[in-house]
Design a protein that fits this description.
The structure is a single chain. The chain folds into two domains: 41 residues, Winged helix-like DNA-binding domain superfamily/Winged helix DNA-binding domain (Arc Repressor Mutant, subunit A, Orthogonal Bundle), CATH 1.10.10; 81 residues, Alpha-Beta Plaits. It is built from five helices and four strands. The protein has a four-stranded antiparallel β-sheet with strand order 2-3-1-4. A hairpin with a 6-residue loop joins strand 2 and strand 3. The two termini are 16 Å apart.
Length: 155
């Protein structure tokens, strides 16, 4: 396992807040030169600590007013079922994230829809009729209390 020094951890913490922060701005915060910051960042990318710098969009500005989590129980747990669910997830852009789980649900989807009617259509017209899906349980997000993009870093 590769060891991170305190400056690496500080750099990662800053980049988690805003991945587009310039090396010059970071140098002021971290007390290092911009070239040192650039080299560290390149090393952290090469070592796989930094996977990319996505652009976060505002769902409300895009008319996506309903966020929900949908738990899925499948009729069976075999390779064909998993492949079918994977294809379903990849073919519906409103499903923005999906995980396989232990416990009662086999999968959980995070979805964004324009409104409750669009969420209902996704559940009623796409998920419930899917041959691999046996049960669907949705939970609508009322408010997001904490941003979900930052990982806990070693101290």
């Amino acid at each position: 396992m590769i060891q991170l020094d305190p400056k690496d951890i500080q750099l990662l913490a800053c980049l988690q807040k805003n991945g587009q922060t310039s090396a010059l701005e970071l140098s002021e915060v971290l007390g290092m030169s911009a070239s040192q910051i650039g080299r560290r960042r390149q090393r952290l990318e090469a070592e796989g600590f930094i996977l990319g710098t996505p652009c976060r969009l505002n769902p409300a500005k895009l008319g996506l007013t309903v966020q929900a989590f949908i738990q899925i129980q499948t009729n069976s747990q075999d390779g064909d079922t998993h492949q079918s669910v994977t294809h379903l997830v990849k073919s519906h852009p409103e499903i923005i994230a999906a995980w396989t789980l232990t416990g009662d649900a086999d999968y959980i989807f995070r979805v964004y829809c324009q409104d409750l009617s669009a969420l209902n259509r996704l559940v009623q017209d796409v998920l419930l009729p899917h041959p691999a899906i046996g049960r669907v349980h949705s939970q609508i997000v009322m408010d997001q209390m904490k941003d979900d993009t930052a990982l806990p870093l070693p101290r």
